[in-house]
Structure formats: structure tokens, C-alpha cells
Amino acid sequence: MDRIWTAEEARSLMPQVRRLVDEIIAIRADLAELGHDLRGGGRSPLGGLAEAKAMEARVAEVLGWFDERQIEIKGIAPVLVDFPAVLDGVSVRLCWIEGETDLGWYHRTDLGFPGRRRLL
User: Fold this and answer.
1) How far separated are the first and last CA of the chain, in Å rounded?
2) Reading across the β-sheet that carries 90-97, which strands appear in turn?
3) N or C: less crowded end of the chain, CB within 10 Å?
4) Contact criterion met (CB below 8 Å) for 109 and 92
5) pLDDT tens per residue, the chain (120 residues)?
6) Is the distance from CB of 78 to CB of 63 less than 8 angstroms?
7) Of 55, 63, 100, 24, whose CA–CA distance to 47 is shortest?
């Protein structure tokens, strides 16, 4: 059965979501720097191929946390999180993007991010 979230349920998870997203953001930056350094000269203060693989594995583990809870990650640069929900009988996604302080938006499932509206 597909998980349907209420706004209250989704908001209650936001502290944990934000902690995990902060971790993804830090790893994303480290991977970008590490990859650039390795391509440019073969060395990086962040490590080598083994460290890059470990970072990628951690991102996959964090993304698995979202998947286990049927929370959708629509992108990681920027991180975009959708909670499947129903508002007034319509399938929607409660929508949060990195940098926002609260879960305050939704969009119809069939419209996606361009159809975002304020969550009342």
C-alpha cells in the first residue's frame, strides 16, 4: 500500500529530514571537490577513489531512509523532497526544497514543481 501523509505527519519528520538533507548537501559538495581534484591532478585532501565510493554509499544509505518511508526525493542538487498526500480529494505532493525553513508548499501530483502552491 502506498503511504499517504498528512501535513502534520510530514511536518513532524522535518527536523530529521533537514538533518539528513544537510548531510547530503555536505557530501554532495565533498564529492564535487574530490572529483574535481582527482580529475585535475589525481590527489585531493579529501581522499581518493575509496573515499568517493564511501561518500556515494552514504548518500545511497540516506536516500534509502526516505525510500523506506515512501518519501520521494526528486533531486539532490538542489534536494527536493515530496510527501505523497491528498488534499480535498486530490492527489498532491507536500513539497520541500533545500533552503526552506518549513514544509509550506504542495503541488498537484500531475503538475509537479511548477504547480507549487502555499500549504495553508
Assistant:
1) 27
2) 72-76, 79-87, 90-97, 105-108, 117-118
3) N
4) yes
5) 699 999 999 999 999 999 999 999 999 999 999 999 999 887 889 999 899 999 999 999 999 999 999 999 999 999 999 999 999 999 999 999 999 999 999 999 999 999 999 998
6) no
7) 55
